[in-house]
Specification:
mainly alpha; two-stranded parallel sheet; 2 strands; transmembrane helix; transmembrane; Membrane-associated protein
Length: 235
C-alpha cells in the first residue's frame, strides 16, 4: 500500500497555528515545571514536530511518530473513557481535576491531538525509515539522563511541580520506585521493551500504510539520453 513519496508542502496556517501553540506552552511549562519537563518523550516529539513543519524534513516527523503514537493512543483512549466514566488506565485523571487550571489542562490536551498531527505530517512529507533507529537512540539517551540525573520516584522535590521519575525510569508509580526487580533491570527492560513493543510495530505500520520518503542519496538519478542515442533511436 505504500509508495515512494515526494514531499508535499505543509500549509502555512498549520505552521503558524502549531508554532503559536508551542510558543505559548513552552514558557508556561518552563515556569510551572522547570526545563527538565522537556525531557519527557511527548515534549521532545512536540519540538520535533515544530522542526518538521518548518524544515519539511520527513525524519523529524517520522521520529516523533515512531516514538509517541502508541503511548498517546493510550492517552486518547483513557481520556475518552474518562468522559464516559470508564477510564482505561487513569493516566488522564488530572485532566478532570478542578484543582488544576483550565488553561493548564487545555495546554496538556496536546497529548490527544499531537499524534494525529504527526500522522498527517508523515502523510504529507513521507515516512523516513531511518526514524526507527534515530528515535530509539534518542529515547535511550533520554532514559539514561532521566535515570542518572533526574529525581527518582518518591524523591524529595525542590518545588511541588518538579518533574521526577521522568519517562517512568523508576517504575509506573511516581510516589515510589517499583519493587518487582532491581532498578537497573527495570531500566534494561525499558531499553529493550520500548523499541520491541512500541517503536518497531509503529515503524512497520508507518512504512506499510503511509508513503515512504527515500533520502536523496538513495534515489536513482534520472539520466537524460545522449544526443547520439536519440539520433540512433530516430533512425
Amino acid at each position: 500500500m505504500n509508495g515512494q513519496s515526494s514531499s508535499q508542502p505543509i500549509p502555512l496556517w498549520i505552521k503558524l497555528a502549531f508554532t503559536a501553540f508551542v510558543a505559548v506552552l513552552t514558557p508556561y511549562y518552563w515556569r510551572e515545571y522547570g526545563p527538565t519537563n522537556f525531557l519527557y518523550f511527548c515534549d521532545v516529539a512536540l519540538f520535533l514536530a515544530v522542526a518538521a513543519v518548518w524544515t519539511q524534513r520527513p525524519i523529524f516527523a517520522s521520529m516523533a511518530a515512531v516514538g509517541i503514537t502508541i503511548p498517546q493512543l493510550l492517552w486518547q483512549v483513557d481520556f475518552v473513557g474518562q468522559l464516559f466514566g470508564v477510564p482505561a488506565t487513569g493516566m488522564t485523571d488530572y485532566m478532570f481535576d478542578p484543582g488544576i487550571s483550565l488553561f493548564a489542562r487545555g495546554l496538556s490536551f496536546f497529548h490527544f491531538w499531537l499524534p494525529i498531527l504527526l500522522l498527517y505530517l508523515v502523510w504529507r512529507l513521507g515516512y523516513d525509515r531511518r526514524a526507527l533507529l534515530a528515535w530509539t537512540g534518542t529515547a535511550w539517551l533520554l532514559l539514561l539522563i532521566c535515570y542518572f540525573l533526574m529525581p527518582p520516584a518518591g524523591a524529595t522535590l525542590d518545588f511541588p511541580n518538579q518533574p521526577h521519575n521522568i519517562n517512568y525510569v523508576y517504575g509506573m508509580d511516581d510516589t515510589q520506585p517499583q519493587q518487582w526487580m532491581p532498578p537497573q533491570a527495570w531500566l534494561g527492560m525499558l531499553f529493550i521493551g520500548l523499541p520491541a513493543l512500541l517503536y518497531y510495530p509503529t515503524h512497520l505500520a508507518l512504512k506499510t500504510f503511509l508513503p515512504n520518503h527515500l533520502p536523496s542519496k538513495s534515489r536513482k538519478p534520472t539520466v537524460a539520453p545522449s544526443p547520439n542515442a536519440a539520433l540512433s533511436n530516430a533512425s
